[in-house]
Amino acid sequence: MKQIISVHDLEELVRSGKDLRSVPGDALLTPSARDFLREHEATGTKQSGATPTSEASSAARMVSSKSSKNDLEGFFNSAPLQELKVQICDIGRRLWQRAYVDGNGGNIAIRVADDLALCTPTLISKGFMKPQDMCLVDLEGNQLAGINKRTSEILMHLQIMKRQPRAVATVHCHPPYATGFAVAGVEPPTCMIPEYEVFSSVAIAPYRTPGTPEMGKLVSDLVDKHNTILMANHGVVSWSHNNVEDAYFKMEILEAYCRTVLVAAQLGKPVNTMTPDQLKDLLKIKQSLGIPDPRFGLKECELCDNDGWRPGVTCAVDHESSAPASREAADPQAEALVQAITDQIMNRS
Ligand SMILES: [Zn+2]
């Protein structure tokens, strides 16, 4: 049975410092509760922790893919959506500045109603988008508003949102270090850096042609337990239950981690990892933040399992047996041959 929310319930939420987003998406709002939410939106009053996403979602209760063209246009041009478009441009710029995207690659989407998403256009560099470039689509990828054509990779974002109801935002890009792991088919090893353990939950999806439903299916099959998916021979996609900046942070955390692991693997020394007990503490924090992880509930001995991790060839110079020793080991016949050729050349000149 659907929950009925009155204006008193909402006032109580705000009083106790809670987020209006904690109102279940399918709850029935009394007329005065609906006015209360609208007022919050119009005055721009934000309770602590509120984001434009929550304001947009209150407006979005009245809009769906079945709404009239006029209503959809009005929604698309409303103040909360304008703010989300600006956020997408900001995240696009950060992706480009950090070289996480190349050419027109990468795409971003934000869920703005039960069956509507705002997304980036095709054929525009993520570093140079304007709010008016954004597109509104339904969850099947049909474009409902916006003058530019939506990204061709939108299906993957929408399949994530359909499979994972908590996903409010998704980011896809090609950060070189993480993509290197995706190309090698190597899942980054664990138990090395706290930030990565708490905020990331990574898996690899096999390669399929970008933009196809098959690709989206393979990715979305992993999003129940993972918030960051390495797409083999392609790039990375992440989702967040908070907002688009949080989805972007998953990229920064993963890329910094892959880079650090690569450096550590080249130092010619075995890397130190945290103990299962230390990891357990981090997983507790992770669970309290509502971030998924397939290791919740595993036994201690299974927690820091890096069996699949094989550091690549490292450059280890053996100083004891360098140049002089190798000269001794050289083939005397070959040496004589080199000498003979050298003499001939010298005699000719
Ligand atoms: Zn891509």
Protein architecture, described:
The protein has helices spanning 7-15, 31-43, 52-60, 69-76, 79-97, 154-163, 176-184, 194-199, 213-220, 244-265, 276-288, 300-303, 323-328, 332-348, and strands spanning 4-5, 28-29, 107-113, 116-119, 135-138, 143-145, 169-173, 202-205, 228-231, 235-240. The chain is α+β, with helices and mostly antiparallel strands and 349 residues long. The chain has an eight-stranded mixed sheet with strand order 6-5-4-3-7-10-9-8, sandwiched between helices. A two-stranded parallel ribbon has the order 1-2. α9 links the parallel β8 and β9. The model is unreliable at 42-52 and 322-327 (pLDDT under 50). Bound molecules: zinc ion (ZN). Zinc ion binds next to loops.
Quick overview of this protein structure:
Helices cover 44% and strands 12% of the residues. The chain is an alpha+beta fold. The strands form two sheets. It has an eight-stranded mixed beta sheet with strand order 6-5-4-3-7-10-9-8, sandwiched between helices.
Any key phrases for this structure?
two-stranded parallel ribbon; 349 residues; 8-stranded mixed beta sheet; binds zinc ion; single chain; alpha+beta; 14 helices
The largest beta-sheet arranges its strands as 6-5-4-3-7-10-9-8
Rg: 27 Å
Compressed to H and E, one letter per element, the order equals EHEHHHHEEEEHEHHEHEEHHHHH
Query: How does the helix and strand content classify structurally?
Result: alpha+beta
How many individual helices? 14
Largest sheet features: 8 strands, mixed
**Strand elements, count:** 10
Compute the separation of the termini in Å: 100 Å
What gross morphology would you assign?
Answer: globular
Look at the structure and give the mean pLDDT.
86
Strand portion: 5-15%
The helix fraction, in percent, is: 40-55%
Unreliable residue stretches: 42-52, 322-327
Which cofactor or ligand species appear?
A: zinc ion
